[in-house]
Amino acid sequence: MNHQVADIALMLVLPLGITFTAILQSAAAYTRSQKILGVLLSILIVAMDCVFYFAKNTYITYNCDGGLLLTFASMVILSIIYAIRSEDRATMSGNIFLAVFMLAGFLGIAYWDRPTFIPTSEYNPRELAEQNARYQDYIASFENGDGGKAVQYKAKQYAASKIGAPASSDREFANSRLESYVDEAESVIRRMLDISNSIDVFEPLPANISESEREIRSQQALAINNNAVALNKKVLGLFHPHESSEAHSELIQASESARLAAYSLYNYTLQDNPEEQLVQYRQTRSQIAQMNVYLDRFRNDIENLKSNNKPQPIEQQDQQ
After folding, report:
1. HSE-CB of 178 using CA atoms within 13 angstroms
2. E strands within 140-237?
3. Where are the domains of the chain?
4. CA-based diameter of the chain, in Å?
5. Cβ-count burial of 79 within 10 angstroms (0-12 exposed, 13-18 middle, 19+ buried)?
6. CB 305 within 8 A of CB 243
7. Helix 14-27 × helix 32-54 angle, to 10°
8. What are phi and psi for residue 58, nearest 5 degrees?
9. CATH architecture of 173-309
């Protein structure tokens, strides 16, 4: 759903809104010369829109990045229209500066690492259309979050893989996505194990603990709890391939168990009643044990995915 909203906003609403604004500003010009120049520039914007919408992936990639590139190009021309209509030098200078800044944005996106403007890209239109389809599938297979990395292929390598072995190319693409996710997951697991170790070395509270000592110990437990909460949010927002959804759910459960264990530890330090302390301490140990179970399941699921993505021998492919 979020991806569809981005498509509508960046590929339809924003570029077409600027186009209609340019047309209206040209029609509302004060002098005939301003109207003529405004109409010519508006026609140029409409021509760029037609190239984007009807000649897809010829000069501009037909995706959100292409829509953003088209928006910056249209804003350059719209700023020029406003500059032409300006009645004083200050307004004209401001609009010219805006046009320059929009041009800088256009050039930045045109020379982006992810291909957007085909004349500046190493991809030809056919390869770029295929790359764009793969990129859309990649984005669609991920949930929202602040992690994950898109896999980029150089044009020559991508073309060679498509000519030599299409099935192998698809498998390599899946492996790259999975490896990127596993690397992120391993860093998360290391943090999770650090939290578990901090809980393990947390010594039980003495029976006659003073208030000052209790406050110190509770602050230590609170720090562990805060780390566990941050880790849980990190896992919930972690990008993952669609095929690893089941494994990722195990990782989420593991992080949730670590969070609950840290929370129980913090409650343990706040309790005065020995019976309540024992209950919280047992919950802490139980959640840590459950976390390890979920991590084992996660590792097993990842191993199964890796084995499924391994290339099959030629004899097996012939039999299939």
Report:
1. 22
2. none
3. 2-137, 173-309
4. 92
5. buried
6. yes
7. 160
8. -95, -50
9. Up-down Bundle (1.20)
Q: Which two tokens stand for residue 296?
A: 């084992």
C-alpha closest to that of 184 among 132, 237, 246: 237
Rg (CA), the chain: 29
| Nearest of 151, 152, 147 to residue 184 by alpha carbon | 147
Q: Which amino acid is at 287?
A: Q
Over residues 310-316, the mean pLDDT reads: 54
Q: From CA 205, how far away is CA 292, in angstroms rounded?
A: 25
Q: Lowest mean pLDDT of 2-6, 177-181, 225-229, name the range.
A: 2-6
Instruction: Tell me if 26 sits within 8 A of 82, measured CB to CB.
Output: no
Bigger pLDDT: 301 vs 311: 301
For 16-63, write each residue's pLDDT tens digit: 999 999 999 888 888 889 899 999 999 999 999 998 888 877 778 777
Res 162 pLDDT > 90: no
237 in helix, strand or coil? Answer: coil
